[in-house]
């Protein structure tokens, strides 16, 4: 297509994506109460534990328009996440004609693997949230209360889920590098001790909390996923080695069949 047609198609697909986000954002406003209950469930689960220790904590919203801004922010994030399959498809459909068949296959494989890994990491963060907040708010000294604004609480949840979700993509990145031939299974095995140390350092820095328990909740799954990706890389290298052996065998020159006995020169009559 000419450039103008490409721009028209891009405009059309962007319009559809924005409309999808707007529709799901409106749904987020309609179903704001159950969404808010889902988000505040980790906090409500943690709060009685702190009350037993004598720490009074509660969620608050500040400012005259703070409640409306908070509702709008949550609804917009819900709209982006809920409509992500649709607007991601619009992006994919725009890029699809320019890809070769093997590139399409790899793109589908990456999307089909990366999305479940990210969702699994975000779900693990949601499970860890109550314990993480209990430890953090537990540093409040005696005689003090803890007031957590809605904006701070929502940002904390988003950061935790993003960190855990991105960290869950480690095996996908390692396998991709191995498939591209940039890293071999032997190199991964030799670098394993330093990689594990790096994972724990990343977990200590990336998690918003300062407690070792939350760090372990992030570092241990990352380590397991790295070991799984190392096994996949080993199997890939083994298969690649067999293919090379077969290609080499096909390229070998076949032996020439000759006579079993060499005939002597014929005699020449005088």
Automatic annotation (TrEMBL):
It is found in: Cell membrane; Membrane. Signal peptide: none annotated. GO terms for molecular function: proton motive force dependent protein transmembrane transporter activity. The keyword Transport applies. It is a multi-pass membrane protein. It comes from the Bacteria. Residues 238-270 are annotated as: Disordered. The keyword Transcription regulation does not apply. GO terms for cellular component: TAT protein transport complex. Residues 238-247 have a biased composition (Basic and acidic residues). One of its GO terms (biological process) is intracellular protein transmembrane transport. The chain crosses the membrane at residues 17-39, 74-95, 107-129, 156-177, 189-207, 213-233. Pfam families: TatC (PF00902). Keywords: Cell membrane, Membrane, Protein transport, Translocation, Transmembrane, Transmembrane helix, Transport. Belongs to the TatC family. Part of the twin-arginine translocation (Tat) system that transports large folded proteins containing a characteristic twin-arginine motif in their signal peptide across membranes. Together with TatB, TatC is part of a receptor directly interacting with Tat signal peptides. The Tat system comprises two distinct complexes: a TatABC complex, containing multiple copies of TatA, TatB and TatC subunits, and a separate TatA complex, containing only TatA subunits. Substrates initially bind to the TatABC complex, which probably triggers association of the separate TatA complex to form the active translocon. This is Sec-independent protein translocase protein TatC. The gene is tatC.
């Amino acid at each position: 297509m000419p450039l103008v047609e490409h721009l028209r198609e891009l405009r059309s697909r962007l319009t559809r994506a924005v409309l999808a986000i707007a529709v799901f954002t409106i749904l987020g406003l309609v179903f704001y109460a159950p969404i808010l209950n889902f988000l505040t469930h980790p906090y409500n689960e943690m709060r009685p534990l702190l009350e037993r220790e004598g720490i009074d904590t509660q969620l608050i919203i500040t400012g005259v328009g703070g409640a409306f801004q908070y509702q709008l922010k949550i609804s917009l994030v819900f709209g982006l996440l809920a409509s992500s399959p649709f607007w991601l498809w619009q992006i994919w459909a725009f890029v699809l004609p320019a890809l070769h068949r093997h590139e399409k296959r790899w793109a589908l494989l990456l999307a089909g693997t990366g999305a479940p890994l990210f969702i699994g990491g975000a779900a693990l963060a949601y499970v860890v949230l109550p314990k993480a907040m209990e430890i953090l708010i537990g540093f409040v000294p005696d005689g003090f209360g803890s007031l957590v604004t809605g904006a701070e609480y929502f940002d904390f949840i988003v950061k935790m889920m993003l960190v855990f979700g991105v960290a869950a993509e480690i095996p996908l990145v390692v396998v991709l590098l191995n498939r591209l031939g940039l890293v071999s299974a032997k190199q991964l095995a030799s670098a394993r001790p330093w990689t594990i140390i790096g994972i724990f350092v990343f977990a200590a820095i990336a998690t918003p909390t300062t407690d070792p328990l939350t760090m372990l909740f992030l570092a241990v799954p990352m380590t397991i996923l790295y070991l799984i990706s190392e096994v996949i890389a080993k199997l890939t290298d083994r298969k690649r080695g067999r293919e090379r052996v077969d290609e080499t065998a096909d390229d070998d020159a076949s032996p020439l069949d000759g006579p079993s006995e060499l005939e002597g020169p014929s005699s020449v009559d005088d």
